[in-house]
Amino acid sequence: MLFDALTITLKDLRLLIRDRRALVILVALPMVIIAIVGSSTGRLRSDREQRRLGLIIEFADFSHSPISERLSGFLAGYENVMMRAVSPPDDTPQTLQRLSEEPPNGQTDARIVVGPKFEPILNSLSRADLTAPETGPLKEGFQALDIRIKRNDLADPLTEGLVKAILRLALQDAMLPLVAEKLPVFRGAARNSVVPEPWEHSEAGRATAKPDVRVYQFLIPSYTVLFVFFLVNIMGRSFIAERDLGTLRRLRISPIKPGSILLGKTLPFLVMSLMQTSILMISGRILFGMSWGPTPWLIAPIMLCTSLAATTLGLLFSTLCKTESQVSSFGNLIVLSSAGISGCLVPRAWMPELSQKISLCTPHAWALDAYSELLTRDAPNMSIIGTSCGVLLTFSTVFFIGGLLRFRAET
Predict the structure, then answer these.
(1) Burial class (CB in 10 A: 0-12, 13-18, 19+), 394
(2) What is the per-residue pLDDT across 166-175, written as a single tens digit (0 to 9) for each?
């Protein structure tokens, strides 16, 4: 039985290696998307050179709170942004009013002033206000949080809008611990997905942060899981091609058992999936400075369990589809809908509570939980990683048995 399965596996592996389109989809495409998303948030690091900074922002912190410090760190983490720490001689209301009303001078494009009421206002926000800012007090803008933005009169008029957009993104990241505290069921990568680098103050009082590459601790696992499950489409097309050529029918009437046939058809894609994940993780480490966590060896079982769930789902899907059009339509629907609800595209912490619970019905969510626990924690909880891998193996078993029963029913 095992020999028959390995024979089929070697034959299919040779065919897959020749399929350049599949290799591009599984390896090159996710790398391009990760790079684009990373650069759009200003966190793509180049080892050879750094692009010239485009925005210079003064930051006056009258709050002196952990959240305001996180906010400044995230702002400084954006590439093309240089932060200048404003150290007022005192925290008097007069100084606060002066910095809030007077435009910055010199080479500074804008000034952000965080008032003393910033942290109390955030702490007073309800769970609904934090999860639906467009309907709560946050809809009134940054002034409702005691934050003021003052643009240099000589700067480009579009600068203020750009600063507001950057500030809004940084504020979302800075508020994550508060959101986690007020949402007891908070789970997933967003809780500890990104941690700002500390400011490095120079003698002149200017402060810049190193490019925050820890965002890739979230991006790379998310898009890796997303594209691992693209095997569903590729496996479906492979089975359709085998049916059209008559190869699958000849295998069915041979003495080879159905389980051996399906095992031989699944193993090549499992090998490809593991290669894909390994390349993405190694590239993330080399190109983007991604960390593999305090115990890197734990990546291996997470990769294996995730790939098993993806390939067995592809097997089940392949036994259900009859035509190429069904593979294209239903395959994309399954891949994109499950990726969206699971948190591959948007962190689950930003979703409604019901959606977060529904997401646990997908293997993607459990894979992301395992990666998040390993890559974003100083001391990963082994029970969480073990539970996630166990659930992924359960998904794999159910998918394989379902595919085997369906395949036998066709013979």
Answers:
(1) middle
(2) 888 888 777 7
28 DSSP 8-state letter: I
Q: What is the pLDDT of residues 264-297, one digit of tens each?
A: 778 888 888 888 888 888 888 887 778 888 888 9
Strand runs (DSSP E) across 181-288, as ranges? 200-201, 206-208
Examine the pLDDT at 185 and tell me if it is beyond 60.
Answer: no
Q: What is the DSSP letter of 175?
A: T
What the chain holds in terms of domains, given with CATH numbers, is: 2-40+217-410 (no CATH), 55-210 (3.40.190)
Structure tokens at 238: 């492979």
Both structure tokens of 292: 């593999």
Token match 């734990």: residue?
298
Per-residue tokens: 324: 């190429």
**Antiparallel, parallel or unpaired: β 110-114 and 81-86:** unpaired
Contact 364, 344 (CB under 8 A): yes
Residue 60, SS3?
strand
Residue where the block lists tokens 């395959």: 331
Strand runs (DSSP E) across 102-153, as ranges? 110-114, 147-151
- Altogether, the residues listed in the chain come to a count of 411
Counts for the chain of helices (H) and strands (E), in that order = 18, 6
Distance of alpha carbon 32 from the chain centroid: 14
Tokens of 300: 């291996």
CA dist 155 → 101, 107, 122, 141, 163 (Å): 16, 9, 31, 22, 12
Handedness of CA 130, 132, 135, 140 (dihedral sign): positive
**Where does residue 326 rank: exposed (0-12), middle (13-18), buried (19+ CB within 10 A)?**
middle
Considering 132-136, 251-255, 353-357, the range whose residues carry the highest mean pLDDT is 353-357
**Number of C-beta neighbours around residue 100 at 10 A:** 18
SS3 314: helix
Please give the model's pTM, rounded to 2 decimal places.
Answer: 0.55
d(CA 163, CA 110): 8
